[in-house]
Inverse folding.
């Protein structure tokens, strides 16, 4: 087999997975997270100056904005349509109602501190510094979140007849295969650029270590092998035809890399910490019915139990999801209006159940994720409550629209039944452990009807700037208008952007 | 069923005005302020629709003659909502919607209105020459509806996503009518013409 330098590098790339891809991305000048990582230094309002800010939605971006503005003397009011704060930060515990339109569920988990399910935001990468800074500042206690566990399972019907194998085995054997292939194939005469004998020796040695090859450059079998699948001559074909590598490499991508963090007791500890400091400025059950830009500010029609009222403010910060905002009466500029309807909504789906025993720990799995090519895609094991009797396990997590629509069509009971059936391939006897299940179809949740905004490259080029800039005194807010959709960090930084702009305008108006 | 009753009770205790308004609120969530429609999530304008038509469609969603085709994603979403309503809750939104005026909207569909006008002749037999609808024939008003929605539904009829259940007599005859339009461009032409009706 002859091999060119380019082909060889390609093979190394395959073996290196997304770590190699990450290096390549760095090489291509992929910039770190855009947007300010620190809250803007908002000038305190001078005596006699009054500025009011109406904040729509009580998700993280809104809470950050309210907190920073209130500290500086702004009059803030937060309107939230739901009967809870947090937006897509949703921790579900026993007794909670899951407000999916047409499909309401009540969670019947036991009421114990470790039995909860983060149905929305659930993990924080170490480099999401703005989020982590607030956790520090607001005394939100954090614990490690195991995102990558080589003891977890991998299962694909196209791989070894659908037999489950350990993640570590998959990775070790894959690296061994690729390294052996490359090490034995590489010949100086095939290299199309000057290449010394020393270079060649170094590369072969690199491959030997990378793939744990023996001195004869043969991949050695893992000592912790659980299957004989890789000894099968057809293993290589199976490996290349299976699409599961993306899942295997997932935990090595930039924002999924260990170590990740999560608040002790549930992600909703973060919004709760803000709410504690904001007091009575948050009004729940207040639905926005119309938004009108005026010359000097923004008017908002709001429907509450007391009826309809019109509120006026100097500025409006709006984290209502774009797909809902598009249906609310407004007088936004035409371009802005088109943009709101242009960005598709995400259709993420999560399902969890209370297991009567922590069976996965008996399988030597402590936290982390198993991957499967079935609809459920992932199974997450809780990083907390280790060795307690029960645990809440995530039994499905999908990102794509097709899966989201498929699960949405099913009743909550049918979703659970499907998740159990598919989970059996990773954990024989799985269904026997299930006590109570809940599922959250974000694009069917009341007051949401969507998960993270599905920005594509072209959409971002066309609409992002238009939608991030203010329309009059109105600013869009939330992870939906950030470089990090679906991450809390995106929500926080969207608030920083709007706050900095408001601060600039207020400073200028005061000077004028 | 028991669970659903409990949840409904809980939702009543936790929140939202009277039940009648709570049901209408759930319409507004998707169909927008004044149920004028929200194209971003494929929810059509309801204001201007006749109450009897709204009721018939809610029943069609509930019985499954509409919203059960695997490719009809929006229909299946609406079916879930219809299934969650009690019998006595079906009439409330229908009555509330019937009381709302049809407002004009921005046209979003381009087409050849002259060709559309010629094609519309056969539509007019049931839906009226001004697209005002005809209750006796069970034909809803078309004028001033969401134009993108009319296109989508005509395509749904043509492609068999709607109007294939034999028990759905109105749907079956509408599918037959939709199939007489020569091509998909004809669908856009006829809707472009409907946009001119008042």
């Amino acid at each position: 087999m002859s091999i060119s330098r380019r082909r060889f590098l390609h093979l190394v790339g395959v073996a290196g997975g997304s770590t190699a891809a990450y290096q390549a991305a760095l090489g291509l000048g992929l910039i770190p997270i855009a947007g300010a990582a620190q809250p803007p230094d908002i000038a305190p309002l001078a005596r006699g100056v009054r500025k009011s800010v109406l904040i729509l939605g009580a998700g993280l971006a809104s809470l950050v904005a309210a907190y920073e503005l209130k500290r500086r003397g702004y009059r803030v009011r937060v309107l939230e349509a739901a009967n809870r704060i947090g937006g897509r930060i949703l921790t579900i515990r026993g007794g909670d109602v899951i407000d999916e339109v047409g499909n309401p569920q009540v969670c019947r988990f036991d009421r114990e501190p470790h039995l909860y399910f983060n149905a929305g935001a659930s993990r924080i990468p170490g480099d999401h510094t703005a989020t982590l800074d607030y956790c520090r500042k607001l005394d939100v206690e954090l614990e490690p979140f195991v995102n990558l566990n080589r003891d977890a399972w991998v299962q694909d019907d196209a791989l070894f007849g659908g037999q489950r194998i350990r993640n570590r085995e998959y990775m070790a054997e894959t690296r061994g295969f690729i390294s052996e292939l490359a090490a034995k194939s590489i010949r100086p005469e095939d290299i199309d650029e000057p290449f010394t004998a020393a270079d060649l020796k170094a590369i072969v040695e690199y491959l030997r270590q990378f793939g744990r090859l023996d001195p004869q450059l043969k991949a050695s079998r893992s000592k912790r092998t659980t299957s004989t699948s890789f000894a099968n001559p057809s293993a290589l074909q199976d490996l290349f035809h299976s699409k599961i590598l993306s899942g295997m490499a997932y935990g090595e991508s930039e924002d999924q890399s260990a170590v990740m963090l999560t608040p002790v007791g549930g992600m909703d500890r973060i919004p709760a910490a803000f709410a504690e400091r904001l007091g009575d400025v948050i009004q729940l059950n207040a639905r926005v019915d119309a938004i009108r830009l005026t010359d000097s500010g923004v008017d908002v029609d709001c429907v509450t139990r007391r009826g309809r009222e019109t509120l006026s403010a100097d500025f409006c910060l709006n984290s209502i999801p774009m797909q809902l905002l598009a249906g609310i009466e407004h007088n936004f500029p035409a371009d802005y209006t088109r943009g709101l309807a242009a960005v598709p909504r995400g259709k993420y789906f999560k399902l969890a159940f209370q297991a009567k025993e922590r069976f996965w720990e008996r399988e030597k799995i402590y936290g982390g994720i198993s991957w499967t090519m079935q609809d459920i895609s992932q199974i997450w094991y809780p990083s907390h409550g280790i060795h307690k009797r029960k645990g809440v396990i995530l039994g499905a997590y999908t990102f794509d629209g097709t899966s989201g629509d498929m699960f949405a069509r099913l009743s909550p009971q049918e979703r659970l039944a499907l998740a159990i059936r598919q989970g059996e391939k990773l954990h024989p006897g799985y269904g026997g452990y299930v006590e109570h299940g809940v599922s959250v179809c974000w694009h069917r949740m009341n007051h949401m009807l969507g998960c993270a905004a599905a920005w594509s490259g072209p959409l971002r080029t066309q609409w992002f700037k238009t939608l991030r800039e203010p329309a009059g005194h109105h600013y869009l807010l939330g992870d939906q208008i950030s470089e990090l959709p679906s991450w809390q960090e995106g929500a926080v930084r969207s608030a920083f952007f709007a706050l900095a702009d408001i601060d600039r305008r207020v400073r200028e108006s005061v000077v004028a | 069923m028991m669970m659903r009753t409990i949840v409904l009770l809980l939702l009543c205790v936790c929140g939202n005005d009277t039940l009648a308004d709570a049901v209408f609120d759930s319409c507004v969530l998707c169909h927008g302020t004044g149920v004028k429609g929200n194209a971003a999530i494929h929810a059509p304008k309801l204001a201007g629709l006749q109450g009897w038509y709204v009721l018939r469609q809610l029943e069609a969603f509930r019985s499954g003659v509409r919203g059960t085709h695997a490719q009809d994603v929006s229909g299946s979403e609406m079916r879930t909502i219809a299934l969650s309503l009690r019998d006595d809750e079906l009439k409330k939104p229908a009555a509330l919607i019937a009381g709302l005026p049809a407002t004009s909207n921005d046209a979003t569909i381009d087409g050849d209105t002259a060709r559309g006008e010629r094609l519309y002749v056969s539509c007019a037999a049931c839906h009226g020459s001004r697209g005002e609808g005809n209750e006796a024939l069970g034909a809803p008003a078309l004028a001033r509806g969401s134009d993108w929605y009319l296109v989508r539904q005509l395509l749904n009829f043509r492609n068999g996503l709607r109007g294939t259940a034999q028990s759905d007599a109105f749907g079956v005859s509408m599918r037959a009518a939709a199939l007489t339009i020569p091509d998909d461009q004809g669908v856009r032409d006829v809707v472009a013409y409907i946009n001119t009706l008042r």
Q: What stands out?
A: Chain A has a mean pLDDT of 89.
